[in-house]
Specification:
Blueprint (H helix, E strand, L loop, with lengths): L1 E4 L7 H5 L3 E4 L6 H7 L4 E4 L12 H9 L4 E4 L2 H9 L5 E3 L1 H8 L26 H13 L5 H12 L8 H8 L4 H13 L4 H15 L17 H5 L1
Parallel strand pairs: 1-2, 1-3, 3-4, 4-5
Helix pairs in contact: 2-3, 4-5, 6-7, 7-8, 8-9
Length: 233
């Protein structure tokens, strides 16, 4: 049984996953351990709860790895946990994971966004900073943005609280005074928007689909420590 925890990074995961992969909501504390108890043989973590609930434990990821269950991470909470647990064998996928690994991205808030609940399909309502950066990269590479302009826009976007960061607020933060210039900038950003979180989530989906159960690529040089607190949960 292959399980992927995903929500706003890939709202249509259930329709694109296909047969053989079970889609579960964003992971919170205890969900990975529960998937193991249910018989998961490969686990993918894309999204995870963090603000009003306890986030997925590192130790439950280590528990899965200690049982020779491959765990993949990408896009959002999964990219964070993959960077943190890579030394123990968790497998990171995608650009966002690589940015955490090399230090280009360091703040966990850079992948955060406001989104609708499950009942409304996890629809993203704001733009995560990692998507802003990917979009600015595209525009700079195309020659549509000069380097200094791109840096000012990125700095402005980074100063906006993740629950308030939209393309409109990014344009407002840039400080254009002319209405026509603001409309042109907004149109350019929206029409060239790169959803890096979705791209990485799809890459994880493919990695999980191709993964062979029990085929960890990392040599186990450690042992998980049993603790009474973890055992109670």
């Amino acid at each position: 049984m292959k399980v992927i925890f995903v929500g706003p990074s890939l709202p249509d995961a259930a329709s694109v996953a296909g047969d053989g992969i079970i889609i579960r909501p964003p992971a919170v504390q205890g969900d990975v351990a529960a998937a193991l108890r249910d018989g998961a043989s490969v686990i993918g973590i894309v999204d995870g709860g963090f603000e009003y609930t306890a986030p997925v434990w590192h130790k439950e990821i280590l528990l899965a790895l200690s049982q020779n269950v491959p765990v993949y991470g990408a896009s959002s909470m999964g990219a964070l946990r993959a960077a943190e647990c890579r030394a123990f064998g968790m497998i990171g996928v995608g650009r966002i994971f690589e940015e955490y690994m090399c230090g280009a991205t360091v703040d966990d808030a850079d992948v955060a966004l406001l989104h609708a609940p499950a009942e409304f399909g996890w629809k993203p309502l704001t733009v995560p900073l990692v998507n802003v950066r990917a979009t600015l990269d595209r525009l700079e590479a195309q020659g549509a943005l000069a380097r200094d302009t791109r840096l000012v826009i990125e700095t402005a976007a980074a100063q906006i609280f993740f629950k308030e960061r939209t393309w409109r607020s990014v344009v407002d933060g840039y400080g254009l005074t002319e209405v026509s210039e603001r409309k042109e900038m907004h149109s350019m950003l929206v029409s060239n928007a790169v959803d890096q979180k979705r791209i990485d989530a799809l890459a994880l989906l493919e990695a999980v689909r191709a993964a062979a159960p029990g085929a960890l690529r990392h040599e186990m040089s450690w042992q998980i420590a049993e603790t009474s607190f973890f055992s109670r949960h």
